[in-house]
Amino acid sequence: MAHTLVIVESPTKARTIRGFLPKDFKVEASMGHVRDLPNNASEIPAAHKGEKWANLGVNTANNFEPLYVVPKDKKKVVKELKDALKGADQLLLATDEDREGESISWHLLQLLNPKVPVKRMVFHEITKEAIGRALDQTRELDMELVHAQETRRILDRLVGYTLSPLLWKKVAWGLSAGRVQSVAVRLLVQRERARRAFKSGSYWDLKAQLQQGSAAFEAKLTHLKGERIAGGSDFDEATGALKAGSKVRLLAESEARQLREAVLAAPWRVAAVEEKPSTRKPVAPFTTSTLQQEANRKLRLSARETMRTAQGLYERGFITYMRTDSVHLSDQAINAARSCVGDKYGKEYLSPSVRQFSTKARNAQEAHEAIRPAGESFRDPSATGLDGRDLALYELIWKRTVASQMADAKLTMLSVDLEADGGALGTAAFRATGKRIDFPGFFRAYVEGSDDPDAALEGQEVLLPSLKTGDSPACKGVEALGHQTQPPARYSEAALVKMLEKEGIGRPSTYASIIGTIVDRGYATLQNNALTPSFTAFAVTALLEEHFPDLVDTSFTARMENTLDEISHGQVQWLPYLESFFKGDTGLETQVQQREGDIDPTASRTIALEGLPCVVRIGRFGAYLETKRVADDGTEELLKATLPNEITPADLDAEKAELILKQKADGPESLGEDPETGDLVYLLFGQYGPYVQRGQVSDDNPKPKRASLPKGTKPEELSLEDALGLLRLPRHLGEHPEGGKIEAGLGRFGPYVVHHKGKGEKDYRSLKAEDDVLMVGLSRAIELLAQPKRGRGGRTALKDIGTPEGADEAIQLFDGPYGLYVKQGKVNASLPEGTTADTITLEQAVELLAAKAATGKGKGRKAAGTAAAKKPAAKKPAAKKAPATTKTGRLRASAVRVIRAADS
């Protein structure tokens, strides 16, 4: 029977769309891209293996023709799509309507080579109405979008695969460079350099607690004898002193304390009262960039987690398409939002007229709506059936969209100037500020967050008592406060996304993958929601700044982004642009060839940091300190000491460096003796941070007992008792009510509790931040073990399917961005079409996981569910063979086989 074949990207999207299409439509998933440039030498077709350009994947000698291949794990998908096309009388390509989606459709068209009519079906939300409109309004493939995506892909490959082997040779094995990635890394490094160069300044001021009637309020010192009191913004970050020409009074500690005593005893007088009306308008609905920023601020989600969650919400029909630069809302969305306002908050909270917003982002593209709840009416978050981060993100989108059609907030900004006699120091002026919300308007639904964690939300009301000029409030207390100026804050993901968008670098739809790559490649770590660059990031950035400055310059990269946009609009020809960028005397290819010999690897691996008694170098196993010292025999020798990963470039000072070098030279000092064994207990520093060790390494004791310090534990505050407690982990806590012992321990992912269920089956839960692994008790452990187990990315398992005979770990069922899947250990396998959470059996799950483990992706893992599925002991990796260095081409060919250059 003839049918219409519809192809989308994912099984989840396919399942949602299938419910809105006629019975004679068949929907299949391509599982993302089905074709791409080769990622390694094994993917290069035999006909091209001898070509010099084959590893690059782009024939630079023949009009930059890309070499597209079908990856091994996509061959089965392509075959299934070809089989589904047989008997079809029409093909609808229904991938997302952006450059990436258009590109996927074009690749499908090239691979499937259909003999039936082909149309492009596009929609921005997956609802019955939207799918119906899309069927009636099909179009042809947009080749300008395809061309734009292909040019970006080629350009990213040229940058990544040309520079990465150079970094690999000159700095460290396995590094990568990227057109946008390297600029983002430089932004992080520049901020860390500023933190390192920062000189702290100190200043004092006063804070008074006053009372008028029964109402208490606070006031801060602003002027003394008519001179403004210095604050944090008045200090020079490079010197720690007041900025040149500052006309402010720097209050010393002695003066602050003297002034405190004077004003505490003096009468206070209200000198002026000001009430200033103010209006706040709601912010625009979400774009990709603002959603990533706000989800990071409010929900502490990474850009990658935000996009993964949003993708799932879109594919299940909850929100509109999540990759968009547009803040525009359709008439349907505006009507739905205004209806929500009237129903939930009342007519008085509705904006008098429809609000429409315009996009201000540089290089705005993608003609979509803003991100909003899907449909002609918005589902209330409480009625969605969502939970966890799905619910949190949907609620954030719902609130921001609804708030955009609400009335302005009406506020009154309050300020009260007060005076008190400061004795010999003169008259002291104080100010109290407040804010009265006269009408909350859109604040009822949504208040935007801030990148400054100390900044109060706009919707918070700060009330002052009713005061008038001449009033004399009572002084209840005065504090003299000392302050230290703080270095510039590191970038959070939200702040970095905001900066990249402001500078016009990259595309918001790629920011998640860019930041993910930076962290995955070891250029930065994410701690306390701050991106901290590594020593490797410093070394790579310094090399690129010196030898390829344009490639890490924000203005140059922004101009490149503009040119790529002009190519997509047909205003610039893509081939001449690629020729000028890559070839010729000033092209990237020539620059790399000419400068490779000038780059000294030793200098490239050395990081110059002022004020250290040594140098920092990048080695095979990370950063280390190196200095020269005089040995006992009078000869000069090199002393090297590994830098713990937790020490950042901005935090490394002379004191820390000397401590690490001293321990390396003299050996560790003991914390004391273990009374049970008589061995000394040592505190040591390794690549992965500080740890304690019982006894010394010797022939009789080649592997002494060791234990890492829990996160947040300060080495200098560690006691012998704490060290012994860590060395004696795991601790037996007691018996579980269902049988089996419970222990507390410390593993590679931090402190945990584990329930030994019997027959080798173990159930783990991580301890929370407030739990102490040395103190946690049985009742708390049982409480934690009763909580749902979360998978990767914070997902909660839908259910435990069971534990196969002879295996240590249970098989669990999860719902991911591409639909339902089963997971055991590190192996995942998607459920086949037609299998549901209710019908999947343990035997089926074992077969699916075993088949997945046997594929190329599962190489090195035992088949899931077998007795041999136990994790083997870790082995030290063999040293990699040094790359050939006689020719750049040979090095590149070698490098590409091992690394995947960042395609940002």
Question: Can you walk me through this structure?
Answer:
The chain has 23 helices and 31 strands. The protein is of the alpha+beta class. The two termini are 44 Å apart.
End-to-end Cα distance, whole Å, is: 44 Å
CA radius of gyration: 32 Å
**Helix/strand structural class:** alpha+beta
Helix content: 25-40%
Q: Total number of helical segments?
A: 23
Number of strands: 31
Q: Look at the structure and give the mean pLDDT.
A: 86
Biggest sheet character: 7 strands, antiparallel
Name the poorly predicted regions: 362-367, 453-457, 856-904
Percent of residues in β-strands: 15-25%
What is the approximate shape? Answer: globular
Write the layout of secondary structure elements.
Blueprint: E1 3-8, H1 11-18, E2 25-29, E3 58-59, E4 65-66, H2 75-85, E5 88-93, H3 99-112, E6 118-120, H4 128-136, H5 143-170, H6 181-197, E7 202-212, E8 215-224, E9 227-228, H7 253-265, E10 268-280, H8 288-299, H9 303-315, H10 331-344, H11 388-403, E11 409-421, E12 427-439, E13 474-484, H12 493-503, H13 508-520, E14 524-527, E15 530-533, H14 535-547, H15 554-568, H16 574-582, H17 588-596, H18 601-604, E16 606-607, E17 615-619, E18 622-630, E19 636-642, H19 654-666, E20 670-673, E21 680-686, E22 689-694, E23 706-708, H20 720-727, E24 731-735, E25 741-747, E26 750-758, E27 761-766, H21 778-785, E28 799-802, E29 811-816, E30 819-824, E31 827-830, H22 842-853, H23 888-898
Parallel strand pairs: 1-2, 1-5, 5-6
Antiparallel strand pairs: 3-4, 7-8, 7-13, 8-9, 8-12, 10-11, 11-12, 14-15, 16-17, 17-18, 18-19, 20-21, 21-22, 22-23, 24-25, 25-26, 26-27, 28-29, 29-30, 30-31
Helix pairs in contact: 3-5, 5-15, 5-17, 5-23, 8-12, 9-11, 9-13
